[in-house]
Design brief:
The protein is 63% helix and 0% strand. It has helices at residues 3-13, 17-29, 34-46, 67-77, 82-89, 93-107, 112-121.
């Protein structure tokens, strides 16, 4: 077993029950084992994203949403339906459903109201109607 796998297994075993349960739910929603989820979380935390290492600018971690998902989250936060969003972006309703599902998963919430709360809490500017 690789060192990373051993470390992830030991970390999972040492978690309290509430954290273990949340990790289990997050891993299931991402289709990974708990150990793989720990590795993904740690990799994201310790290996910041820098698209141009030679630029000399600050290194920033990638945001949880793509630009399109962020725009859709803004409209979800304003109460738009999938149909309204689809019409606005010239997308199929099914594509919008897929984006909303990805937003729910990435943000770690279960419904559109929670997306609205998350979006508002992070201080993002709303997209004009």
């Amino acid at each position: 077993m690789a060192l990373a796998s051993v470390m992830a297994t030991l970390m999972v075993r040492g978690l309290d029950e509430e954290v273990r349960q949340r990790l289990k739910e997050r891993a299931a929603s991402n289709g990974r084992s708990m150990e793989a989820e720990v590795r993904a979380i740690l990799s994201t935390a310790v290996m910041p994203h820098d698209p141009d290492p030679g630029a000399g600018g600050p290194v920033t971690a990638p945001g949880p949403l793509t630009a399109q998902e962020d725009r859709i989250a803004a409209l979800v936060a304003q109460g738009w339906s999938n149909r309204q969003i689809a019409d606005s972006f010239a997308l199929s309703e099914r594509t919008v459903e897929a984006h909303v599902s990805a937003i729910l998963r990435k943000v770690g919430v279960r419904n559109r109201a929670a997306v609205a709360s998350w979006f508002t809490a992070r201080g993002a500017a709303p997209v004009p109607r």
